[in-house]
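Why does residue order matter? Because the sequence determines the fold. Keep that principle in mind as you read this record.
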Amino acid sequence: MSKIKKVVLAYSGGLDTSVILKWLQETYGCEVVTFTADIGQGEELAPARAKAKKMGVKQIFIDDLKEEFVRDFVFPMFRANALYEGEYLLGTSIARPLIAKRQIEIANQVGADAVAHGATGKGNDQVRFELGAYALKPDVKIIAPWREWNLTSRESLLAYAAKHRIPVEYKKGKKSPYSMDANLLHISYEGGVLEDPWKEPEESMWRWTVSPQKAPNKPSYLELTYKRGDIVAVNGKQQSPATVLTTLNKLGGANGIGRADIVENRYVGMKSRGAYETPGGTIMLKAHRAIESLTLDREVAHLKDELMPRYASLIYNGYWFSPERRMLQAMIDASQATVNGTVRLKLYKGNVAVVGRKSATDSLFDASIATFEEDKGAYNQKDAEGFIKLNALRLRIAAKRRKNK
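Structure:
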């Protein structure tokens, strides 16, 4: 413990990380540098600076990472149409490598020999943070207090805070029953009534989306313009990546879009029930698949779909900086060269419907071939006979063998 002189703590200013800050100072006798990432969680971050300063922290980093988050992490992930276990849009998972990256950058900048986080020993985040840290700084020391200390409950944390006069905003009876995590892509909920997978989430839990039943009775239409697989404009207006996602979150939330209630398999081995609101991401996934349906070669599209579950698992499990994820990303990004055009969507009471798609430069849809009317020789229907017979050859051989037995 005495070997650690300076540690960079991923710090939110909440109860857990405020206690961790003091615990690090006491247990390791080291200087603590705090790092708070603004990735669109919607919380006021100034109090975190004030609390850290009051606890004797001299180097305080509060970084606005919203544009980098969407541009370099969310958008690349959506080029792959990534879904974990067919449902989860990976809102928490994709934020962790960015936090780890910036934390290591700060550690290098201030000459720290360790980093610390507040993830518990039961969850996925400890894996994501630490795999990211080791990939970027192989010899870094990592301190995970939840795996070391004996503060095993909220009551014990509050008692520690009171003993050491740590400023904590807490009112008895006012605590949310859920463990929540938010960023520009989503907000997640765990714990409380969600620990019984049979019970329906309370309507009062949801924060970003209106109930689909209470959404407007009139549908909302919007157009998304794509360039190389990324959204560059909403309704014809060019926007930055973070602004795109912010806009879609508002539109989706107002129309009751993006709620999910999932039982997922954590990387550490247990099943976990969580609820998620991802309004903008839900719209993005639907729209991206629509523009790809028009502009991607059939076999390229099918190969992407085959590889997507592996790609999604790599992100969920914390392997963003792994060579295999980088390899898959290079392939995915190459496929997006022709993913250009516009998608028109209809949002209505929790649903996203594609009602139009076009690409002036890269559409592979040829109406003269696909038409049910006279195609003027573009496609010779007689050719289909030989095509079918050749593809049926193995089936016919097998059928004859069964018949002769």
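The two ends are 76 Å apart (CA to CA).
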